[in-house]
Amino acid sequence: MREIREEAERARSTPAPELTFTLWRRFADTGDRLAHERAYFERRRRLAALALAPGHTPDPALDDLLWSVCDEYTWVLPAHEPDDRPLDTFVDLFAAETAHALAEIVTLPGPRIDARVRERVRAEVDRRVLRPLYAGAPPMWWERSATNWAAVCAGATGMAALALDSPHLPELLSRLRGAIEAFLAGTGADGACLEGPDYWSYGFGYFVYFAEALRERTGEDLLDDPHVREMAAYPARVDLGGGARPAFADAQGRGAYPAGLLSRLAGRLGVPVPEPGVPSFHDDACYRWAHLSRTLRWFREVPGRRAEPCSYLPDAAIVVARAGTTAFAAKGGHNDEPHNHLDLGHFVLHAHGRTVLDDLGAPEYTRDYFREGRYRVPHASAEWHSVPLIDGAAQLPGRERRAEVLAYEEKGGNVTFALDLTAAYAGPHRFTRTFHWRPGTLEIVDDFGLAAPDALVEELFVSRVRPVTGLDTVTWGPVELRVPPGWRARAEERRVRGHDGAEESVHRVRLAARVPPGAHRFRFTVRT
């Protein structure tokens, strides 16, 4: 609440940025998304702070900002401008989120908002977001999507219609149910979010918010479902400890889950959840009304409760093992997953509060990243994941580029996880990778059936920790790798842009050898 008051005062005393044509066209001209989005989300930040700040007297700053949001050319982001229909008939993630925020803000109790502003908001929400979904328009692509888009667009639109008590509510809910069903069907029985932990917060979070709003109105309980319970347990199952998680797909290796969401899931479903920590107004860089308002309403001091020491998600082919201050995670799957990276057989190793062998996670989103240039970005490329190059060849994209799980065994906290990764690569080579985890020690056995007897194999190991290479060891802080005889280690560094656009240095160790066919072992030890 202190942060909200501070933000509200800043919003009253400084002008909000404008969404100019120059900002709008920048994505089409250069592929840059951040310039427009920074101004867009700064306006949502101010809107949330002004609406959530305590007070019962009229607030001209809130009236003005609501009116200004209604004046925006569109609530759709430039990156989401459709090719198949007029812009003003399309609902994207952020148009739906804006509609939900405005609808609930103008229905808050009290006289703080001018009646004329309320009426304009209702009209704009109906025109921009509700009407395209109740007026018989052709389906939008996300209505059949198995990704976060379906849950966020349908959930936010549904909550806006519920808040405004739209006369078209029955037909809207009927149409939105299809998108919700598509979202749920896109997750395997193990409940894993293939888009990564951050997109779990986003997609599954909006599903939960909508489900609870619908339950309050109708009594129908969409959370009373075994599959939903499995989805709710996902964050605890991939938790590495201390707020860390594997940054598989377009995720971040560290970050806050919405505290209100975790509280509600722990209370309603009794599932294990990571420790929520102290919520902040700034946990979500997009300042989504759904997360902020539900955290204020739902957050309770619930103790974090881990899943079992070892988690295996068979549909996603993800394994996570935890022991004290160390943990490891690895993944199979296929190379056409949502928010895909070329990362079959990739792993992370967490030690003493830091993910040492790491995943770069999500880069800055640009136009090319969601087109043909995706796999030229280091974060998504095979060359910047901890997987080998075989005779110079990297993994390739495509659903047929798939890992086959050969074995998973867990006993007393020790784990064996074996994958056949042959299909991930082109060419005649056979390749299997087996992980043997013993608390504090990770051994990787790579078995190559090579077409040539002396083919070049390059094992890549990625980190944000600068490595130190010796004659027969490589160390990354507390983690040591014994370099097998015949392999030569070389450290490389590269500057990349993170999801927020900031530059950082990342590191890669390249172990190279011309190897005979057969098994080659790489042992990582965590020093105490």
Walk me through what this model shows.
Pfam families: Hepar_II_III_C. By secondary structure, the protein is of the alpha+beta class. Helices cover 33% and strands 22% of the residues. The strands form four sheets. The chain has an eight-stranded antiparallel sheet, with no helix packed on it. Strands 1-2-3-5-6 form a five-stranded antiparallel sheet, with no helix packed on it. A hairpin with a 4-residue loop joins β1 and β2. The relative contact order is 0.08.
From the alpha-carbon coordinates, what is the Rg to the nearest angstrom?
24 Å
Instruction: Detail the poorly predicted runs.
Output: none
Number of helices: 13
Strand fraction equals: 15-25%
Write the layout of secondary structure elements.
Elements (H helix, E strand, L loop, with lengths): L1 H12 L7 H10 L3 H19 L7 H12 L21 H13 L9 H20 L13 H16 L5 H17 L11 H22 L7 H7 L1 H4 L21 H11 L19 H10 L11 E4 L4 E6 L2 E6 L2 E2 L11 E5 L2 E4 L31 E2 L7 E5 L1 E8 L2 E7 L9 E9 L2 E9 L6 E8 L4 E2 L3 E4 L2 E4 L5 E10 L5 E12 L3 E9 L2
Antiparallel strand pairs: 1-2, 2-3, 3-5, 4-8, 5-6, 7-13, 9-10, 10-11, 11-12, 12-19, 13-18, 14-15, 15-16, 16-19, 17-18
Helix pairs in contact: 1-3, 3-4, 4-6, 5-6, 5-7, 7-8, 7-9, 12-13
Keywords:
528 residues; 13 helices; 22% strand; 8-stranded antiparallel β-sheet; 5-stranded antiparallel β-sheet; alpha+beta
What would you say about this model in short?
The protein is an alpha+beta fold.
